Amino acid sequence: MSFQSEAELEKWLIKELQQQFGYSYYKQIDSKETLEDNFRENLYNLNKEDLNNAPFTDTEYDRILTYLKDKSVYQSAKQLRDKYVLEREDGSKVHIKFLDIDNYSNNKVQVANQITVINKYETRFDVTLLINGLPLIQLELKKRGIALEDAFNQTERYRRHAYTGLFKYIQIFIITNGTNTKYYANSDNTFLHSSAFYWTDEENKRINDIKDFIPAFLNPDRLFKMLHLYTVLNDTERCMMIMRPYQVYATELLLDKALSSDDNGYIWHTTGAGKTLTCWKCAKLLITHPEIKKVFFLIDRRDLDTQTTEDFNEYEKNSVDQTEDTKALTEQTKDKNRKLIITTIQKMSHAINDPKYKSIMEEYANEKVVFLIDECHRSQFGKMHKDVKGFFKKAQYFGFTGTPIFKENAKKEGEIQYITETLFGKPLHQYMIKQAIADGNVLGFKIEYMKTIVAKNSVYEQKLNENEAASSSTEVSAIDTAEAWNDERRIEAVCKNIIQNFKSKTVNKNYNAILATSGVENLIRYYDTFKRLKPDFTFGAIFTYDVNEDAETKEETSQDAMARIIDDYNAKFGTSFKTDTFAEYNEDLSKKFKANKINLLIVVRMYLTGYNSKILNTLYVDKNLVYQDLLQSYSRTNRTEKATKKFGNIVCYRNLKYNTDQALKLYSNSASTEGIVQKSFEYYLNRLQTALGMLWQVTETPQDAANLQSETEQKKFILAFREVIRLITTLKTFEEFDFDKALIGISEEDFDNFKSQYLDIHKNLSRRDTAEKASILDEVDFQIELLETDVINVDYILTLLKNVDMTNPQQKEKDIKEIFDKVKNSANPVLRKKVDLILAFVKSLVDGLKMPEDLEARYRTFEEKAKQEEITKFANEYDITYQDLKDVFDEYEFAGILNNDSIKALIHKEMGFLELSKIVKEIKLFIIETSDKYSFEMAG
Q1: Which residues of 502-534 are buried (b: 16+ CB within 10 A; e: fewer)?
Q2: What is the pLDDT of residues 408-418, one digit of tens each?
């Protein structure tokens, strides 16, 4: 199938929706008034019975519009799923619904195209799906052969400038060029490329072409399920999340298995692909069925108990409470209204075995209960699990793991070899690491193996390497290698290597890292060595210690070591934790690590499974790892984020090549690691040479780039140099990298000069002086963030603000000063222009007892008010009508157009040509500089 133009694609799409699913075509929406009239009619029809067939009066409808309008995307999504209590003019009250979630067929779906919205400028949207009159699905189309990112960038531009009024209720964006199609949730914040997903079938086969996407995704049943069941409102981040196809299929398969059988099963979704969200959605849907009396979310570590509770409450505030102890577990179990309970297997085992609690639990011994077990590869084969399974006679068990236990990595109990399938049965759904990387749902790994021991005796060196390459079941030589690995000289060499390359690995500390050590003694040596070397990054440490440790032969027990590490932490952050408040210390440390207040965290086992953070991008490994432990540890680094995070960095200070290959092959069900592990330095270097050749074909020197006249030539330059930027950004993460022309083919001076031309074209594009035609560069993604890897932006500052401890005056003062310093010293050109603005905003918040939840919305309001005040002040100084100046300003912000005639029309005084020219230049300069100051920053 081929389409001659976007208009023909649009026409074909509408016809398919009409013919396949009976969508009604509504073609007359040429203004917001028409849109609102259509909504009024549809809303009445949806609620006709409750309204006793009495249409809305004008006053009543105005109340509804007032309730709906001028809200954020997040607030709009909340209201869409809620009901509005309408007080009618006769005094009666009616609960008005906007969606019928009980009977999807009662909702009316319309398709419209080229809906025209005129604010200060005219905007037309490609194809809009209206549900009960509200625009909930927006499709942006590009003809075949045009990059999909052009459509993505267009929706971001419209989000900032055009989606107002009822268009705030858009829930899902769909972008397509006919050949490729993606979907993503609407947001109050900048769209991220990593949040746009392909749809697939149940076997994870991608559905790219729009002709296949329509029946798979836009059939009314699937579409309403995506809106109602699989769009999640994150109450902590105050944003919408839409589930990925494999999460949807896994949820549906598990639900079907639970409701139609007594069988067990497990979900194998690779680590980092969002299993927690899938677990939460399964739990929330299971508890809606009355035949299921309780859903227990079972985990095997207290710290994960805390984290899972936090994760679940992030998706829905107060949806679960943590079971602090066995008594709390039994109290929650006794509560008939509480159907979802998070607890540890240890507490559950205690509850069913202790006579004090057993009678409470026995009420559910013969009822249908469901156990959801996270990280089910770990400790689910022991006695406690057997006790639980024997107690609850009608229970079903569903596991979630990214690393199942197979015969290759199973441990034996006598003659029995336990694997995940033994306990849970067949997997219900699989989504493996190679698929997830190909789909862009997790990142691949860049793995470096550093040789840290060179033995004089070649046999001894061989034994050292064999010891590291051996699997956990292989017998090796009795040579004691622990002394060599823990040698202080080696530890110091590793620390110096980490310090030397830390900024390049973490992209100038925009990301952070974990150092995984082989044991407590090893960790303490690393911690003390870093203290002595005083690196220019913050570091902390945590490990579990033995309170009954034999101290006779030791100068310092592990508990004593942990105590002084906590003392250092207290001194650094103004806290007062001790070893007897270890859990609270861990919780605080986790928050600070996620906020990047700790750049490097040294651990033994903690944080290597179950810990999720998008800003963690590097793992240093100085311990032996195999199979599930290896992949779990590596996968802490592979969460998707902005374009500056290209992969998870893994730096191995032991020879783990064999173990790595074996683990990645097993968990990708593949004979190779192709597509999982990033290529070598030489591979990217060769690609850079090719990219430089393409750049030289367009322009041989930076000066030649400055002389490119046509936009077609400029676009060729942008695309060629953008590829050079991407590859150099990647190469910088390798230790072999040096900005040497003899090595990489371009000098740093030439690169910077090309970069200046690149940025000038980007800047000039946003300052076009006429409205003769749209630029072909409008939809090109310049990916400026790749050139500003040391940037601290507004989003980062707001994240820091969210983590300020307002209850601790000393720490609050320290945190606020740190934020002020970051703003003042930032290399970000946008942020530098906002310094006074951000500092004023921060000062307006510091007197409260806690940071407001809607921090981003408050900042936007604060910034918008400041912008209006600046425009008002300038208008008064130059004797210009405020609204006229605002109209020109708005047009420039939306379209990048500054028209001299429009500016001259602002000036009503009689004056000579030179004076008029001077005033016009001053007005243009004010508009450009003020717009730059209040601009939004694009994310990758």
Answers
A1: bbbbbbbbbbbbbbbbbbbebbbbbbbbbeeee
A2: 878 766 566 67
